[in-house]
């Protein structure tokens, strides 16, 4: 049995506390059904207790999942856990299901009452199929949010261990924001009337929504496990590659590409699928660029392990962007090859418009140019982490994001208002100015930034007696 899970259950599942909360839940249920018609009672139980499920298992549960790390750091017991015999998988599941045990018990009671209300008072309100779909939808969404909260807490711990005791609120906020986006996307898919041919499987909108939420929950667990392995410095060869980040990105890319299955034209379908997969890989790369620590000592350790031929330790130290950026590059190259015929077909054969063909070709080739800007932004993030953030690396993601927003949004808008075109290719992709300028500008930036990033590494260590 998982020792971390048992320890958390003993701490969380206090009989007196559980009894008090369950009595409160039953009292709320009695107030909802009092003096109501059967239909109103069923509708009230279903609506109110579904909201209570999200408040307890969702909001409270994400807080507890994040606090599973921050409380250990605040109490000074995290280092002892790191040096224990428990592996990353054991600690991940133990904290994910142990620290949230109390929230899950109360939340499951609320979810049960939400589904039992229509069954007891008005069976016509929800069919059996709708009950199963609602339960699966809510459970997958909340569990995925808790996994994201745990992963966010581990990521913040890697950024700034000394100040991480107060990081539960930030980790919970990240989890709630990601969960809200997943909820919105799943609702939009569930309301789809016609089935979609997802990788050859005819799936309804509700089935696609559940599949997406299942991948969301699985991705959260994989990322949390990967960050836990990194925190425990596990360099075992079978788990050395960042499988968590690779698995999360691969699942997201496959799911997004499959959503293009409703397009009849095969070339158009493949182009849209590759563009969707590229978008997921690029987004995962930017998340890794923003939130992974850019510790020069770790990068030097990675270089040293590589030179020594220690494959397992090299792969374990590999940053997440180094896994997803090649995937984005493959999608961009494939899209440029597949989409060439699409641009010709739509632009010249269907509309007989050469200018439209040029525009479509530029759009299809844009991901290739986007790879250069991803590399540029990676070097910018390294400069921010190593030089500007100082002794508070937790500031680095926000500082990096601010710099990128200024480069991509504020400065181009100012240049547009002033009518200046020359600096634009240094800020955003500008294929309309020609490939030479559009590619040369970011390459020049990459070269200059690489010199700034690499220079501190080339400095010899100070001699004895020198400051």
From TrEMBL:
<keyword id="KW-0812">Transmembrane</keyword>
<feature type="transmembrane region" description="Helical">
    <location>
        <begin position="170"/>
        <end position="189"/>
    </location>
</feature>
<feature type="transmembrane region" description="Helical">
    <location>
        <begin position="359"/>
        <end position="385"/>
    </location>
</feature>
<feature type="transmembrane region" description="Helical">
    <location>
        <begin position="44"/>
        <end position="62"/>
    </location>
</feature>
<protein>
    <submittedName>
        <fullName>Uncharacterized protein</fullName>
    </submittedName>
</protein>
<feature type="transmembrane region" description="Helical">
    <location>
        <begin position="209"/>
        <end position="228"/>
    </location>
</feature>
<keyword id="KW-1133">Transmembrane helix</keyword>
<keyword id="KW-0472">Membrane</keyword>
<feature type="transmembrane region" description="Helical">
    <location>
        <begin position="136"/>
        <end position="158"/>
    </location>
</feature>
<feature type="transmembrane region" description="Helical">
    <location>
        <begin position="312"/>
        <end position="339"/>
    </location>
</feature>
<feature type="transmembrane region" description="Helical">
    <location>
        <begin position="397"/>
        <end position="421"/>
    </location>
</feature>
<feature type="transmembrane region" description="Helical">
    <location>
        <begin position="96"/>
        <end position="116"/>
    </location>
</feature>
<feature type="transmembrane region" description="Helical">
    <location>
        <begin position="433"/>
        <end position="454"/>
    </location>
</feature>
<feature type="transmembrane region" description="Helical">
    <location>
        <begin position="240"/>
        <end position="260"/>
    </location>
</feature>
<feature type="transmembrane region" description="Helical">
    <location>
        <begin position="272"/>
        <end position="291"/>
    </location>
</feature>
